[in-house]
Write a structure and sequence with these properties.
About 30% of the residues lie in helices and about 30% in strands. With about 400 residues, it is α+β, with helices and mostly antiparallel strands. The chain folds into 3 domains: about 80 residues, Phage tail protein beta-alpha-beta fold (3-Layer(bab) Sandwich), CATH 3.55.50.30; about 130 residues, no CATH class; about 150 residues, Sandwich (Jelly Rolls), CATH 2.60.120. The longest helix is centred in the first third of the chain and has 17 residues.
């Protein structure tokens, strides 16, 4: 008979998983104009610093570099925000004395030895000093860059494109209208805002939406044939093989079946007109929505208590919570966040009940706890495979 055991794998949380950016240099971010890695802000900040160093040359930037910078700035609102923030330091005169008096060629070794948290500051300070010795090139480059930023600000719409996270990554983006989108592990979305509608297509994974209120432009999430419509609310949509799992944290959402083709990217008001209403959810409700169902939502709406809602949304804080789920379900969930392939090879342990919490990036800690507290044997037939069986 399965036993309910407590698997307390973590008791503290330091703000989320340790994420890796898809690229650490500005050059690596220019090959895809419309596909954006939802990189951590500190990595985007470093890329912005790299761009400033590339532009601060005596001869000035080339046309190709300007075009590449324009593409980089359009990758997401955060890219532009970080770059604008850093440009204000170009005319800073209160630099540390050791940098002002040191020869330029001595700065690079200090940068190489710096800790990750300070590396950007040293790079940027050194870059400013080098640019300042070039005389007029500083003001010329600044004028070009600010011109680019002003042109982008006048475009009216920014932040459109594809955003994605890899396995184990989680991150947030803020859209031009103030809406906040948080991507869970292995997620991919296409943002396309137009004058009369805000549309986000969910292509993979799980995403939490905090839609800014705008009664003139509905906020619609498209996922296969399903449509989730909201105006000023917070909700999560997870793309599952047979259904869309929708959880409403605040407000209300309407669910519908699109009559467009599944791969269609029609982002006008016609999307709503060519849809069949299925029902709606309010705060604290969830459903596994089947857009192809003959009627209704395809499954019953479930009411969530606060503890249940917290468990459903724990991933937003970089945590996974379990309250008596079978080990088989726990492992299925954990496998979403790791490149390891964890397999239960002994049916005797599949129904062991697990309760507890741990960080999404602490797979090894979970495996250790299973081995030490549950009598489960953990073996590794290969570098990327883990087998679980009864000892």
């Amino acid at each position: 008979m399965p036993l309910l055991k407590d698997l307390a794998l973590a008791t503290t949380f330091n703000g989320g998983s340790n994420l890796n950016a898809h690229s650490s240099k500005a050059e690596q971010g220019n090959s895809l104009d419309s596909t954006h890695s939802a990189a951590p802000k500190e990595d985007i900040e470093q890329q912005a610093a790299d761009w400033l160093l590339r532009l601060d040359t005596e001869q000035g930037p080339s046309r190709q570099e300007i075009a590449q910078l324009r593409s980089w700035l359009k990758r997401s609102p955060v890219h532009k925000e970080q770059f604008q923030r850093l440009t204000q330091y170009w005319h800073c005169t209160n630099l540390p004395a050791d940098l002002i008096n040191s020869p330029a060629d001595s700065a690079q070794p200090e940068v190489a030895k710096a800790k990750p948290g300070s590396r950007f500051k040293r790079l940027f300070s050194s870059g400013w000093r080098i640019a300042a010795t070039a005389g007029a090139s500083l003001s010329v480059t600044a004028a070009i860059v600010m011109g680019l930023l002003l042109m982008d600000n006048n475009s009216g719409i920014s932040g459109n494109g594809i955003y994605e996270t890899r396995t184990g990554e989680q991150n947030s983006i803020t859209l031009v209208d103030g809406s906040v989108i948080q991507l869970n592990t292995g997620s991919r979305i296409h943002v396309n805002f137009v004058d009369n509608q805000r549309t986000v297509s969910l292509m993979a994974g799980e995403v939490h939406f905090e839609a800014a209120k705008d009664t003139t432009r509905p906020f619609i999430v498209k996922a296969r044939e399903g449509l989730v419509r909201a105006v000023g609310t917070a909700f999560t949509v997870r793309l599952q093989p047979q259904a869309l799992k929708v959880v409403v944290a605040e407000g209300k959402v309407a669910l519908a079946t699109s009559l467009d083709k599944p791969n269609s990217d029609n982002n006008t008001a016609e999307t709503v007109k060519r849809a069949v209403d299925r029902g709606y959810l309010i705060e604290g409700q969830t459903v596994d929505f089947i857009p192809e169902a003959d009627k209704g939502l395809g499954n019953e709406i479930q009411e969530l208590k606060q503890d249940d809602l917290d468990q459903q949304l724990a991933w937003r804080k970089g945590m996974l919570l379990f309250s008596g789920e079978p080990l088989s379900e726990v492992i299925t969930e954990v496998n979403r966040y790791t490149s390891l392939k964890i397999e239960i090879i002994d049916a005797q342990i599949a129904d062991i009940r697990i309760g507890g919490h741990f960080k999404v990036d602490e797979t090894e800690a979970m495996l250790h706890a299973l081995e030490m507290s549950f009598g489960i044997q953990v073996t590794r037939p290969s570098d990327n495979t883990v087998h679980l069986a009864l000892k």
